[in-house]
Design goal:
Elements: H1 11-17, H2 20-29, H3 40-62
Helix pairs in contact: 2-3
Length: 73
């Protein structure tokens, strides 16, 4: 990305269009020594992955803990 090529976007504009947690997930999915290809498709994939993570988290929270041979008073 560079201003001279016209493909630079300030972070404030990016945060206005996308979920900040999805942007964070996209950054975390890329190794710190590897170049990152930041595209709309990549952020859409990170958004989808984040949604699936939240759904799995909610499903786990809704499950009741199993009792292991203990009786409750």
């Amino acid at each position: 990305m560079s201003k001279s090529l016209g493909n630079f976007e300030p972070l404030a504009q990016l945060l206005g269009r996308h979920d900040p947690q999805a942007i964070r997930l996209l950054f975390l999915q890329t190794g710190y020594r590897k170049p990152m290809n930041f595209t709309e498709e990549a952020i859409a994939g990170a958004t989808t992955g984040l949604t699936r993570l939240f759904e799995a988290y909610d499903a786990l929270r809704e499950r009741r803990p199993a009792t292991r041979g203990r009786s409750t008073p």
